[in-house]
Each structure stands twice: as structure tokens, then as C-alpha cells.
Amino acid sequence: MGNNSETRNLASARSSNYSSARIQNNRRNKRRSRHNVILGLIIVSLIVIVLIALVFIICDFVKNKRAQAGVDSSAITTEIVTTAVNQDFRAASRAIDGDDSTYMLSGESQRTGSYILLDLGTETDVMSVEVISNDVTRYVRRADIQISSDKSTWKTIGEFVGEPSKATPQFISKGISVKAAYIRFILTEKCDELWLVNTIRVFNPDGNEITVRAAMPGILTSDVTVTHAPDLTSGIPSGVTVLYKSNALIYEGDLILVNNQHEYIFPQSEADVLTMYGNRTEFTDAEGKTVYSYKIGDIPLTCLKASALKHFNDMADAFYKETGKSILHVGTNAGWRSKATQAELAAKYSTALAAGLSEHNTGLAANIDLYIDDKVYSLSDSALLAECGQVLMWLNQNAYKYGFVDRYPAAKDSITGLSIDRYHYRYVGFPHAYYMTQHNLCLEEYIDLLGKYSYEGEHLCFTGDDGNSYEIYTIKADITSTATQVYVPTSLPYTISGDNIGNFIITITK
User: Fold this and answer.
1) Does residue 153 sit in helix, strand or coil?
2) Co-location of 218 and 347 in the same domain
3) Chain centroid to CA 305: how far?
4) What SS3 string covers 95-107?
5) Is residue 184, in this structure, part of any structural domain at all?
6) Which residues constitute the domain of residue 413?
7) Do 271 and 305 touch, CB atoms closer than 8 A?
8) Is residue 457 part of a domain?
9) What are 230-275's pLDDT values in tens digits?
10) How many domains are there within the chain?
11) Distance, CA of 360 to CA of 367 (rounded, Å)
12) Number of other residues whose CB lies within 10 A of the CB of residue 304
């Protein structure tokens, strides 16, 4: 019995030792597992850190490579944003592939500041830039050609004015050699249509085409300094900027002269006009009713160009505020007339002018009459002497303040050649209307006078009753080229208008 007891005790001891060993072994395994997990986490973290470092190294390498290629970070950002929204812009290279049948097409409407930047690889002599934008509706309306050596300071060397389906190339800045490493084709006019460019070519002074290294689209997001180097052409004094304006622009502007000798050049598309009906100022009369400072005829057929309409509204509003009378009236077709409308009127009435000979085709003129008791009266109606006299006196004293002149005064019939379009008010802009009124000049006389003031010679200088000083001179269009060098001040406000004869008229405000 004693032996059995010893045997059991020994077995129990062995079992206890075995359990203790198993527990210790399990503890070692758990510790080893924890160590493995921690080690694994450390290894994974190291791998992630290495990968991140590699990404930064690669990005920095790409950035440096782009910088060496002449693309700064702002251009990269602009390109990425643009192509993300507009995949068609990735075809910008088609504008420099030399094939006029291919094209770059935008994915959004034309807006100022959109551009194509051409990288020439190195600074080189550039004589001219050739542009083709050939489409019925998506042609580029207007753009500047700018050059730069560093992509931060730009010079405008020419202007592109598009025409629908014009497959012939337009040369910009032909005849003037400049140095450039980059060229930018930048839109300067808004349009609801997309914009398409078939081809842009660059030529050196020898007439050989320069290989364009890359074409990059973008959109300006901030102001850009535009300067003009003194060596752009000879004899340019400091403070003067040289622009290249298409000769087609001599037929556009607030000062164009239209009469029997100088026909209006209709644009390819309808003029940019607004209906007067939807753009008048609302007033509330003494009875709380909504009134307008003037009445109009047919709603869709009574229009003016935007610039003229704004100032016409200001003039009519001032009359209403001063007199309390809403009696001014612009009848149907008494503002802008399309070419077709003018032709219809000429066919119907023997006194109507042929299309292109009437100022109404410009959208810058309106005939004024009276609207009283639901009837329309001429400003010469003898039955309304008091009302007519009040309106005519007010217009004679104030129209010029809003840029308008009485275009066909009776005393000037022998000069204007028109005696049937009385009370026809033409927008020419304040300084010109002021000078014409002060010196009793009709537009024919004024344009003839301005032709005597050239950029190289004496300028017309005067001070208006608005407190500003004005300086005016003309530059004759260069008929040997498609564009003309126009000299304007670098730091003073100015406007440029054609005269429809052959000159650019520059007006500086001081």
C-alpha cells in the first residue's frame, strides 16, 4: 500500500511539472507573437516611409524636369485644372502640328484670359506669327499675340481678329523682328461659342518657320504685367506702348464716320446690340406706379449697342429726374437697324438710305421724338411747342455730357448731305461730344479736323467741363500690311477708335 501511495504522489508531481512547463511555454509563445507583431508593424512603417520618400523624390524630379523645359509651377497648375475640366484641351498640340485640317478645340466658351502658350525652347528672333481659326461658329473672335523671354513679362506685338470659315492665314506683326522664347495667343473678347484653332506658325526674319517645342493651354487667374521693350521698334520714347492693331479695326469704334461717301462695313455676324426694352431704368412715380424715363416702339426692333445704350439711358434718366416727365420716345427701327432691315426700308421708302449708308446700321444712333397721351409726336410738331421746346433746349445743353451729339443740325446740311433725319442723336463719347458742341462741329468737320493731328506732329489737347484733360491724335493705317503700329501711353487711360476712312483715333484721358 505504501508503494502505491508513493507511485500516485510521483505521478501527481510529474503532472504538476508538465502543466507548469506548458504554461511557461504558452507564455513564451505569446511573448514571441507580440514581438512578431511589433516587428511587423515597424517593418510596414519603414516601408511606408520609404514609399513616401520615393514619391517626393519622383515629384521633385518631374518638377525639375518641367522647369528645365520652361514650364513654371503656375502653368502646370493651370494646365492640370484646365484639362481636368476640358479633355479637348489635351489636343493643344494639334495647333502646332502644321496640319491645317486638324485643330485644338476648347471645352468652354470664349472668355478673356484663355490662352495657348507656345514654348520655342530658347530665345530666338521672331518676325511674324501666322494664325488660322477656321470654323463657321467656333472661330476665335479676337486675341492678342504676346511674346516673353521669361513668361512673367509679356509684350503685345499684334492682334488677331477672326472671321468665320476664314481658311487663309492671318499674319501678326509681320515686318518687325523681336526676340522671344515664349509666345502666347490670348483671348481678349468674350463669346458664348467654343473656340477652335487650326494652326499657329512662327517665322524668323529669314521667313523660315520656327519649330515650336510645345503648346500648353491655360487661363489667367491673376493680373499679368504687360510691357513693351524700347527695342520693339525704333524711336519709341519712354512711357509709350506699341500695339499692333488689325487694319480691319479702322471700320469699328465710336467715331466711325458713315455717310454717302463712307459706307458702313457690316460685321460678319449681327452687331452686338441690346434691346432698349429690357435695359431701361425703372422709376416709381408719385402714385407708386413703375415708369421708365423713356418709351420705345416695337420691343425686339428697338436696340442700341451696349456702350451707346448705357449712356442713352443715363441721358434719359437725367431728363426724367430733372423734369419729372417720361415723354421721350425711340420708335421702332429708330435705333439700330440690321442690313436686311435697312434694305427693306430703302425699297419701301424713297427717302430711306441704302444699307450701309445709314448711321442706324452702326447701333450708335437713335432718333428721339415724344410720346404724350398714347401718341407719338415729332420734336418739330407745332401743336406741342412748349413740350418740344423744353426737350430740345435740354438736349442742346446736356446731350454732350452723355457722349451724344445732334448728328444732322439744319445749319450743317450742306456738309452732312442729309436733311431728312432730324433729331437723330449719335453717340461719339464724352470728350468728342464736348469738343464738337463747344466748337459747333458736325462729325464730318470733326473727323476732318482730327486728321490734322498725327502722332508725330501736334496733338489736339483740351480740358472738358468734367475736369479732365484730353489729348487726341490719329495714326494712319499701314496699307502695306494687315496691321498697324499704334502708339499709346503706358500708364494713362486711353481709347482707340477707327474713323471708317483710314485712321486710328487715340484719345488719352489725363
Assistant:
1) coil
2) no
3) 16
4) HHCCCCCCCEEEE
5) yes
6) 256-427
7) yes
8) no
9) 333 445 566 788 888 888 899 999 999 999 999 999 987 666 789 9
10) 3
11) 9
12) 27
